[in-house]
Specification:
The protein has helices spanning 9-24, 79-114; strands at 35-41, 56-65, 68-74. By secondary structure, the protein is α+β, with helices and mostly antiparallel strands. It has a three-stranded antiparallel beta sheet, covered by helices on one side.
Length: 115
């Protein structure tokens, strides 16, 4: 690989985007993986409306850890805070993925220019 890397307008654009991403990428300490969703369940109490209805609403955070699906129920008053933390984690993950693609595109340009 050359020390300066690939040249040209496409390479300049990719490098600019790479450095923008690097400036933005700070690991959000409170970020959460996975997704937050509302589910419904029957409580099992005799004569409760949930037996005939769709059930009681409850929120859950679902994510993978060590190759296994994890589900954690979230109290209703935590939902907005957890939603923001999940969103933060998603944005971080997307930025890292874009950085990797940008690096791969720069590598491909460099290889193409060396020919």
């Amino acid at each position: 690989m050359t020390k300066k890397g690939p040249r040209g307008p496409e390479a300049a654009r990719l490098r600019q985007r790479k450095y923008e991403l690097l400036r933005l990428l700070r690991i959000p300490g409170e970020a959460l993986p996975g997704s937050l969703s509302m589910t419904h369940h029957a409580c099992g109490t005799a004569n409760c409306h949930c037996e005939k209805d769709k059930g009681h609403a409850r929120w859950q955070l679902t994510f993978m850890a060590n190759g296994k699906k994890q589900v954690h129920y979230i109290p209703g008053d935590w939902v907005e805070a957890v939603r923001m933390r999940v969103e933060s984690g998603r944005h971080f993950k997307e930025a890292v993925a874009e950085l990797w693609v940008t690096n791969a595109q720069l590598l491909a340009l460099e290889r193409k220019q060396r020919r």
